[in-house]
Specification:
Length: 270
């Protein structure tokens, strides 16, 4: 199931994007593995976001690497908190901390590379999923361990969304709010997986075996700037976030993208 692939990655500016492009399909089909879009938000705006976030420290959820504001879908059935209530709170927070509307801006970018598909936040029983979570990676915590998005497919929190979108071929996206003094790079391993559709037990065993010798695989590091957006095939590319050094946290905001089963929409969520 592993395959060696020449990494194909683009760096673009907002001016490079046009409504006719379908970079989403290129990433989905792995003709293109990822893109960095420069300055989706300005350095000045992200500096203001970072400053405002200091007032929301009571909304943090602890993780093995630091904290998050907002829950991700994996935690929908694994947390004492209500995922959909957290989604409402997170969306309200984003409107307070971003000068320009977060959802409007990212949907505009997604739309320009969607090949004409509609951009939607998924809904379940009339409740909106969260469009993103904010991640704080603390220094000297080991970063975010190696993983792919496919590892979460056995989680029952994804059951409804599986009926709406092609999750085994989902993509990851994030924007940089603040960079650490050292470290925190996105690390892409030279381990590319074909589409995964396994039972829970088989899936966990497969990834446990895969990671035993992962450090022997070649790695490519990406270090996007504040305000940049990264989109890549996170479901089938093994990746991690490198350990952070110094006194500053790595702060990002992001989630996932997937094509709807009818190929008419792009869903984004966290």
């Amino acid at each position: 199931m592993n395959k060696q692939t020449q990494l194909n990655w683009l760096t673009l500016s907002l001016k490079d994007l046009t409504a006719s492009q379908d970079l989403i399909s290129q990433i989905y089909q792995e003709k293109l593995h990822g893109i960095i879009i420069k300055q989706v938000f300005s350095q000045q705006e992200m500096d203001e976001v970072c400053q405002k976030l200091s007032f929301y420290q009571t909304n943090l959820h602890p993780t093995m690497y630091g904290e998050t504001i907002g829950l991700n879908l994996f935690q929908k059935v694994m947390s004492d908190y209500d995922y959909f209530q957290e989604s409402k709170d997170l969306r309200a927070t984003l409107k307070k901390v971003f000068v320009t509307d977060f959802e409007t801006n990212v949907e505009s970018v997604f739309s320009q590379i969607s090949g004409g598909r509609k951009i939607k936040i998924p809904q379940e029983n009339g409740n909106y999923y969260t469009p993103a979570t904010i991640r704080f990676v603390q220094p000297q915590q080991g970063g975010i361990p190696a993983h792919t998005g496919s590892e979460a497919l056995y989680n029952t929190g994804y059951d409804y969304l599986k009926t709406q979108a092609d999750l085994p071929d989902s993509m990851s996206y994030f924007l940089v709010i603040d960079k650490p003094e050292l470290g925190g790079e996105l690390v892409i391993y030279d381990v590319f997986l074909s589409k995964i559709d396994k039972e829970k037990k088989e899936l966990k065993e497969f990834f446990a075996d895969l990671k035993k010798n992962l450090d022997k695989s070649p790695q490519t590091l990406f270090n996007p700037d504040v305000g940049d957006m990264v989109i890549f095939k996170g479901s089938t590319i093994m990746h991690k976030v490198a350990d952070v050094s110094g006194s500053k946290k790595r702060i990002t905001i992001g989630g996932f993208l997937a094509v709807s089963h009818d190929n008419q929409s792009i869903y984004y969520w966290s």
